[in-house]
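Record minuted for everyone:
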Amino acid sequence: MNAIALGGPALHSGTTSAVVLTHRPGLLALRQRDVEIPFRSLRVDRADYGVTVRGQSLRVDLVEHLFAAIAGLAIVSDLRVDVYGSEIPLLDGGALRFSRALRQLGFASGEPIVTVARAATFRWGESVYRFSPFPTVRIVVNVQFDHALIQGQRACWQGDPQDFLERIAPARTFGFRRDAEQLQAVGRARAVDLRSVVVLDENGTCLSDPPPSPDECVRHKLLDLLGDLMLWGGVPTGHVEVTRPGHRATHSVMGEAWARGVVVDAR
């Protein structure tokens, strides 16, 4: 077997979409309507409540969970993702089904192709990103929310694909009911499944079943961060600690980190 198809409702558009993951020689690439773009040539088109990428006529929404699976399993080549629709399907709300499919296709884990070259700290609004050289991968995420089920949480991942598969990949996306209602008013978040999306109410409760495990939300924040890093060469060797990460913040900071030589090509 060299290809697996996965499909289901798309979170924002509400339509059914699908991807086909193909193990073949070559660069990591995304393909839509016969337009194939290497990951390294993709550009971020929007990063509010999900990441949309663009390249030539290709435009694909909500790529971060699939990209997190690729990052967490340290896949650096030989994968083509064919997208049928405008958006990656939500599936389980995390990266578990993507990760299992990729494992089934027999991808080997590769070494990081980028590295943290020097220490630096970047601030973007309330988000803080700290980089320092380190001989292996070490990603730390801290969050603080005014909600009884989240409050202060911390998660760490040290680059092990099996640990990603077992602990990070199952963490579901989450949000607040007020945000879901606002998004739906502008035509987004049309397919919120309370089994795959953790929806938190302002009164300190959760509308989803099952409710989140104690540190599920911060683990999903780490998952999102890994997915975002795939658009900047992948997860770097080094210590990266982030407080209150967000898609917009991550892409802004990573652009600056590359421009200043904080993150560099390791090859």
Remarks:
- The longest strand covers residues 16-23.
- Residues 149 and 163 are 24 Å apart (CA to CA).
- The chain has a mean pLDDT of 95.
